[in-house]
Design goal:
CATH topology of the largest domain: FAD/NAD(P)-binding domain
Number of domains: 2
Largest sheet: 8 strands, mixed
Shape: globular
CATH architecture of the largest domain: 3-Layer(bba) Sandwich
CATH class of the largest domain: Alpha Beta
Distance between the termini: 49 Å
Radius of gyration: 21 Å
Length: 347
Protein backbone atom coordinates (compact mmCIF):
# COMPACT_ATOMS: atom_id res chain seq x y z
CA UNK A 1 0.00 0.00 0.00
CA UNK A 2 1.32 3.44 -0.95
CA UNK A 3 0.22 6.49 1.07
CA UNK A 4 0.75 10.21 0.52
CA UNK A 5 0.43 12.41 3.62
CA UNK A 6 0.10 16.17 3.06
CA UNK A 7 1.45 18.20 5.98
CA UNK A 8 4.31 17.43 8.40
CA UNK A 9 2.78 18.98 11.50
CA UNK A 10 1.80 16.79 14.49
CA UNK A 11 -1.12 15.19 12.63
CA UNK A 12 0.83 14.36 9.50
CA UNK A 13 3.86 13.03 11.36
CA UNK A 14 1.81 10.74 13.61
CA UNK A 15 -0.44 9.52 10.79
CA UNK A 16 2.58 8.80 8.59
CA UNK A 17 4.24 6.86 11.40
CA UNK A 18 1.28 4.59 12.17
CA UNK A 19 0.73 3.88 8.45
CA UNK A 20 4.43 3.06 7.99
CA UNK A 21 4.33 0.82 11.06
CA UNK A 22 1.44 -1.04 9.41
CA UNK A 23 3.66 -1.78 6.40
CA UNK A 24 2.66 1.04 4.04
CA UNK A 25 5.10 2.96 1.86
CA UNK A 26 4.56 6.55 3.03
CA UNK A 27 5.48 9.84 1.38
CA UNK A 28 5.32 12.87 3.71
CA UNK A 29 4.86 16.18 1.86
CA UNK A 30 5.42 19.65 3.35
CA UNK A 31 7.33 22.68 1.98
CA UNK A 32 8.46 23.48 5.54
CA UNK A 33 10.63 20.34 5.50
CA UNK A 34 13.17 22.43 3.57
CA UNK A 35 13.38 25.05 6.35
CA UNK A 36 15.73 24.87 9.29
CA UNK A 37 13.62 24.83 12.44
CA UNK A 38 10.44 24.50 10.37
CA UNK A 39 9.00 27.79 11.65
CA UNK A 40 5.21 27.96 11.79
CA UNK A 41 2.71 30.74 12.54
CA UNK A 42 2.21 29.64 16.15
CA UNK A 43 5.87 28.92 16.87
CA UNK A 44 5.74 31.17 19.96
CA UNK A 45 2.59 29.62 21.37
CA UNK A 46 3.16 27.22 24.26
CA UNK A 47 0.99 24.12 24.19
CA UNK A 48 -0.87 23.27 27.40
CA UNK A 49 -1.38 19.50 27.12
CA UNK A 50 -3.18 17.44 29.79
CA UNK A 51 -0.85 15.08 31.65
CA UNK A 52 -2.75 11.90 30.57
CA UNK A 53 -2.09 12.81 26.93
CA UNK A 54 1.69 12.38 27.13
CA UNK A 55 1.74 8.56 27.51
CA UNK A 56 -0.48 8.32 24.42
CA UNK A 57 1.80 10.60 22.42
CA UNK A 58 4.82 8.61 23.61
CA UNK A 59 3.18 5.37 22.46
CA UNK A 60 2.51 6.79 18.99
CA UNK A 61 5.98 8.38 18.76
CA UNK A 62 8.35 6.40 21.02
CA UNK A 63 11.22 8.51 22.36
CA UNK A 64 9.28 11.77 22.05
CA UNK A 65 9.84 12.82 25.68
CA UNK A 66 13.61 12.32 25.51
CA UNK A 67 13.78 14.20 22.20
CA UNK A 68 11.88 17.14 23.69
CA UNK A 69 14.38 17.20 26.56
CA UNK A 70 17.27 17.20 24.07
CA UNK A 71 15.68 20.21 22.33
CA UNK A 72 15.65 22.15 25.60
CA UNK A 73 11.94 21.87 26.43
CA UNK A 74 11.32 22.49 30.13
CA UNK A 75 9.71 19.76 32.22
CA UNK A 76 7.77 20.46 35.41
CA UNK A 77 4.54 21.86 36.77
CA UNK A 78 2.84 25.22 36.39
CA UNK A 79 0.91 26.90 39.19
CA UNK A 80 -2.77 26.37 38.47
CA UNK A 81 -5.42 24.67 40.53
CA UNK A 82 -6.71 22.57 37.60
CA UNK A 83 -3.36 21.23 36.33
CA UNK A 84 -1.86 17.81 37.13
CA UNK A 85 1.87 18.28 36.79
CA UNK A 86 3.22 14.72 36.97
CA UNK A 87 2.89 11.57 34.86
CA UNK A 88 4.49 8.36 36.01
CA UNK A 89 7.00 10.23 38.15
CA UNK A 90 8.18 12.26 35.12
CA UNK A 91 7.58 16.00 34.92
CA UNK A 92 5.25 17.14 32.13
CA UNK A 93 6.97 18.89 29.18
CA UNK A 94 5.78 22.34 28.10
CA UNK A 95 6.78 22.66 24.41
CA UNK A 96 6.24 25.54 22.05
CA UNK A 97 4.86 24.59 18.64
CA UNK A 98 8.21 24.76 16.81
CA UNK A 99 9.94 22.31 19.14
CA UNK A 100 6.91 20.01 19.35
CA UNK A 101 6.90 19.79 15.54
CA UNK A 102 10.65 19.20 15.43
CA UNK A 103 10.49 16.43 18.05
CA UNK A 104 7.59 14.65 16.36
CA UNK A 105 9.30 14.77 12.98
CA UNK A 106 12.50 13.41 14.54
CA UNK A 107 10.64 10.46 16.09
CA UNK A 108 8.36 9.75 13.11
CA UNK A 109 10.48 10.30 10.00
CA UNK A 110 12.36 6.98 9.96
CA UNK A 111 11.48 5.00 6.84
CA UNK A 112 9.41 7.79 5.26
CA UNK A 113 10.00 9.45 1.89
CA UNK A 114 10.18 13.19 2.63
CA UNK A 115 9.20 15.73 -0.03
CA UNK A 116 9.93 19.42 0.66
CA UNK A 117 7.41 20.78 -1.84
CA UNK A 118 3.90 22.11 -2.20
CA UNK A 119 1.07 20.06 -3.66
CA UNK A 120 -0.02 21.47 -7.02
CA UNK A 121 -2.74 19.02 -7.99
CA UNK A 122 -4.46 15.83 -6.80
CA UNK A 123 -6.35 13.55 -9.21
CA UNK A 124 -8.24 10.32 -8.50
CA UNK A 125 -8.92 7.68 -11.16
CA UNK A 126 -11.27 5.41 -9.13
CA UNK A 127 -8.39 3.33 -7.80
CA UNK A 128 -5.31 5.50 -7.17
CA UNK A 129 -4.22 9.06 -6.52
CA UNK A 130 -1.79 11.02 -8.65
CA UNK A 131 -0.24 13.87 -6.65
CA UNK A 132 1.69 16.51 -8.61
CA UNK A 133 4.23 18.50 -6.56
CA UNK A 134 5.60 21.97 -7.09
CA UNK A 135 9.12 20.65 -7.70
CA UNK A 136 7.92 18.69 -10.72
CA UNK A 137 7.70 15.30 -9.00
CA UNK A 138 4.54 13.19 -9.23
CA UNK A 139 3.52 10.57 -6.68
CA UNK A 140 1.09 7.67 -7.00
CA UNK A 141 -0.82 6.56 -3.89
CA UNK A 142 -3.65 4.29 -2.79
CA UNK A 143 -4.44 6.57 0.17
CA UNK A 144 -4.23 10.37 0.35
CA UNK A 145 -4.21 11.81 3.89
CA UNK A 146 -4.83 15.57 4.08
CA UNK A 147 -3.17 16.76 7.28
CA UNK A 148 -2.51 20.23 5.87
CA UNK A 149 -4.41 22.07 8.61
CA UNK A 150 -6.84 24.88 7.89
CA UNK A 151 -5.42 25.33 4.39
CA UNK A 152 -7.12 22.02 3.48
CA UNK A 153 -4.95 21.44 0.45
CA UNK A 154 -6.88 18.59 -1.18
CA UNK A 155 -10.39 19.99 -0.74
CA UNK A 156 -10.53 21.79 -4.09
CA UNK A 157 -9.66 18.54 -5.87
CA UNK A 158 -12.26 16.61 -3.86
CA UNK A 159 -14.94 19.23 -4.59
CA UNK A 160 -14.22 18.89 -8.31
CA UNK A 161 -14.53 15.11 -8.07
CA UNK A 162 -17.93 15.16 -6.33
CA UNK A 163 -19.20 18.18 -8.28
CA UNK A 164 -20.05 20.21 -5.19
CA UNK A 165 -18.22 22.52 -2.75
CA UNK A 166 -17.25 21.01 0.59
CA UNK A 167 -19.30 22.82 3.27
CA UNK A 168 -17.37 24.09 6.28
CA UNK A 169 -19.23 24.91 9.49
CA UNK A 170 -17.91 28.02 11.22
CA UNK A 171 -18.42 28.78 14.90
CA UNK A 172 -18.06 32.00 16.92
CA UNK A 173 -14.66 33.62 17.18
CA UNK A 174 -12.39 33.11 20.16
CA UNK A 175 -10.12 35.82 21.52
CA UNK A 176 -6.88 36.87 19.82
CA UNK A 177 -3.42 36.01 21.17
CA UNK A 178 -0.31 37.97 22.14
CA UNK A 179 3.00 36.58 23.35
CA UNK A 180 6.42 37.93 24.38
CA UNK A 181 9.64 36.57 25.91
CA UNK A 182 10.79 38.15 29.17
CA UNK A 183 13.91 38.20 31.33
CA UNK A 184 14.41 39.12 34.96
CA UNK A 185 11.81 36.99 36.78
CA UNK A 186 11.90 34.91 39.93
CA UNK A 187 9.43 32.12 40.71
CA UNK A 188 9.32 29.67 43.63
CA UNK A 189 11.84 26.83 43.34
CA UNK A 190 10.63 23.98 41.13
CA UNK A 191 7.84 26.01 39.54
CA UNK A 192 8.05 26.53 35.78
CA UNK A 193 5.36 29.16 35.60
CA UNK A 194 1.79 30.08 36.32
CA UNK A 195 -1.48 30.25 34.41
CA UNK A 196 -4.72 31.96 35.25
CA UNK A 197 -8.12 32.79 33.79
CA UNK A 198 -9.96 35.98 34.66
CA UNK A 199 -13.70 35.37 34.79
CA UNK A 200 -14.65 39.05 34.55
CA UNK A 201 -12.75 39.87 31.34
CA UNK A 202 -12.51 36.41 29.73
CA UNK A 203 -8.73 36.80 29.43
CA UNK A 204 -6.43 33.82 29.92
CA UNK A 205 -2.69 34.05 30.60
CA UNK A 206 0.21 31.68 30.99
CA UNK A 207 3.75 32.49 32.09
CA UNK A 208 6.24 29.72 31.33
CA UNK A 209 10.00 29.32 31.73
CA UNK A 210 11.61 28.77 28.30
CA UNK A 211 15.23 28.53 29.46
CA UNK A 212 17.35 29.24 32.50
CA UNK A 213 16.83 33.01 32.23
CA UNK A 214 13.95 33.45 29.76
CA UNK A 215 10.21 33.24 30.26
CA UNK A 216 7.30 33.50 27.85
CA UNK A 217 4.12 35.37 28.67
CA UNK A 218 1.14 34.46 26.43
CA UNK A 219 -2.33 36.00 26.67
CA UNK A 220 -5.56 34.93 25.04
CA UNK A 221 -7.74 38.01 25.05
CA UNK A 222 -11.43 38.01 25.75
CA UNK A 223 -13.72 38.47 22.75
CA UNK A 224 -13.76 42.07 21.48
CA UNK A 225 -10.49 43.14 23.15
CA UNK A 226 -8.09 44.80 20.67
CA UNK A 227 -4.62 43.36 20.28
CA UNK A 228 -1.84 45.12 22.23
CA UNK A 229 0.86 46.61 20.01
CA UNK A 230 3.69 46.78 22.56
CA UNK A 231 4.95 44.47 25.32
CA UNK A 232 4.09 47.22 27.82
CA UNK A 233 0.47 47.21 26.62
CA UNK A 234 0.35 43.43 27.04
CA UNK A 235 1.61 43.69 30.60
CA UNK A 236 -0.95 46.43 31.30
CA UNK A 237 -3.74 44.02 30.37
CA UNK A 238 -2.67 41.86 33.31
CA UNK A 239 -3.65 44.71 35.62
CA UNK A 240 -7.30 43.99 34.80
CA UNK A 241 -7.01 40.46 36.25
CA UNK A 242 -8.51 39.95 39.68
CA UNK A 243 -5.66 37.49 40.34
CA UNK A 244 -2.66 39.85 40.46
CA UNK A 245 0.12 37.23 40.77
CA UNK A 246 1.21 37.32 37.14
CA UNK A 247 1.14 41.11 37.01
CA UNK A 248 3.37 41.30 40.08
CA UNK A 249 5.75 38.68 38.68
CA UNK A 250 6.35 40.45 35.37
CA UNK A 251 6.20 44.05 36.62
CA UNK A 252 10.00 44.53 36.62
CA UNK A 253 10.81 42.12 33.77
CA UNK A 254 12.34 43.21 30.47
CA UNK A 255 11.19 41.96 27.10
CA UNK A 256 13.46 39.89 24.86
CA UNK A 257 12.64 40.04 21.17
CA UNK A 258 9.49 41.24 19.42
CA UNK A 259 5.88 40.93 20.50
CA UNK A 260 4.07 38.17 18.57
CA UNK A 261 0.34 38.44 17.91
CA UNK A 262 -2.16 36.38 15.95
CA UNK A 263 -5.82 36.86 15.24
CA UNK A 264 -8.83 35.16 16.76
CA UNK A 265 -9.46 31.63 15.54
CA UNK A 266 -12.95 30.37 14.82
CA UNK A 267 -13.87 26.72 15.34
CA UNK A 268 -14.41 25.16 11.92
CA UNK A 269 -15.46 21.71 10.74
CA UNK A 270 -15.64 20.10 7.31
CA UNK A 271 -19.23 18.80 7.08
CA UNK A 272 -18.35 15.81 4.89
CA UNK A 273 -21.42 13.82 5.93
CA UNK A 274 -23.50 15.99 3.59
CA UNK A 275 -21.56 14.81 0.51
CA UNK A 276 -21.94 11.67 -1.57
CA UNK A 277 -19.40 10.05 -3.85
CA UNK A 278 -16.27 10.89 -1.86
CA UNK A 279 -13.31 8.85 -3.12
CA UNK A 280 -12.49 5.74 -1.11
CA UNK A 281 -8.82 6.61 -0.75
CA UNK A 282 -9.09 10.04 0.88
CA UNK A 283 -8.91 10.92 4.58
CA UNK A 284 -8.71 14.41 6.16
CA UNK A 285 -7.17 14.51 9.65
CA UNK A 286 -6.38 17.16 12.25
CA UNK A 287 -7.27 20.78 11.49
CA UNK A 288 -8.21 19.82 7.92
CA UNK A 289 -11.22 18.09 9.50
CA UNK A 290 -11.77 20.08 12.70
CA UNK A 291 -10.05 23.08 14.25
CA UNK A 292 -10.69 24.63 17.66
CA UNK A 293 -9.11 27.61 19.49
CA UNK A 294 -5.81 26.70 21.23
CA UNK A 295 -7.05 27.94 24.60
CA UNK A 296 -9.56 25.10 24.77
CA UNK A 297 -6.68 22.65 24.99
CA UNK A 298 -8.33 20.22 22.58
CA UNK A 299 -6.24 20.40 19.41
CA UNK A 300 -3.49 17.89 20.17
CA UNK A 301 -5.95 15.66 22.06
CA UNK A 302 -8.16 15.54 18.95
CA UNK A 303 -5.15 14.65 16.81
CA UNK A 304 -4.14 11.81 19.13
CA UNK A 305 -7.69 10.44 19.12
CA UNK A 306 -7.92 10.59 15.33
CA UNK A 307 -4.54 8.95 14.70
CA UNK A 308 -5.15 6.25 17.32
CA UNK A 309 -8.52 5.53 15.65
CA UNK A 310 -6.84 5.35 12.25
CA UNK A 311 -4.25 2.94 13.65
CA UNK A 312 -6.73 0.56 15.30
CA UNK A 313 -9.28 0.57 12.48
CA UNK A 314 -6.65 0.17 9.76
CA UNK A 315 -5.17 -2.77 11.67
CA UNK A 316 -8.65 -4.30 11.89
CA UNK A 317 -8.97 -4.10 8.11
CA UNK A 318 -11.75 -1.50 8.00
CA UNK A 319 -12.20 0.59 4.90
CA UNK A 320 -11.04 4.20 4.62
CA UNK A 321 -14.67 5.19 4.06
CA UNK A 322 -15.69 3.68 7.39
CA UNK A 323 -12.75 5.29 9.21
CA UNK A 324 -13.61 8.66 7.64
CA UNK A 325 -17.29 8.33 8.60
CA UNK A 326 -16.41 7.53 12.23
CA UNK A 327 -13.99 10.44 12.48
CA UNK A 328 -16.47 12.86 10.90
CA UNK A 329 -19.10 11.84 13.44
CA UNK A 330 -16.68 12.39 16.34
CA UNK A 331 -15.57 15.72 14.85
CA UNK A 332 -19.20 16.88 14.72
CA UNK A 333 -19.61 16.26 18.44
CA UNK A 334 -16.30 17.92 19.31
CA UNK A 335 -17.13 20.90 17.11
CA UNK A 336 -20.47 21.43 18.89
CA UNK A 337 -18.70 21.42 22.26
CA UNK A 338 -16.01 23.82 21.02
CA UNK A 339 -18.54 26.30 19.63
CA UNK A 340 -20.54 26.06 22.85
CA UNK A 341 -17.48 26.88 24.99
CA UNK A 342 -16.39 29.76 22.75
CA UNK A 343 -19.95 31.07 22.77
CA UNK A 344 -19.90 31.09 26.58
CA UNK A 345 -16.65 33.08 26.55
CA UNK A 346 -18.17 35.66 24.21
CA UNK A 347 -21.44 35.96 26.14
Amino acid sequence: MRCAVIGAGPTGCLAARVLANAGAHVSLIDPALALSGRARPQAGHVHVLPAPLWPRLERLAPGLLSTLADLGVRFGSVGATTLDGEIGGTAVPWPDRARLDAALLDRCRHGLDLHAARVRRCTWDDSRWQVALGDGAELSADLLVDASGVSRVSFRSIAALVGAPIPVDVGPSGGAYASVSLRGLSLPRGRLGHRVQDEATGHRAILLQESQDRWRLTLQLGAGTPLPHTPEALVEILQSFRDRRLQLLVHHATEVGPLATWAAQRPTRAALETLRGLPEGWLPLGDALLTTPPALGQGIAQIVYQVAHLESQHRAGHSVERIRTDLCSAAGQQWMMATFLVGLDAA
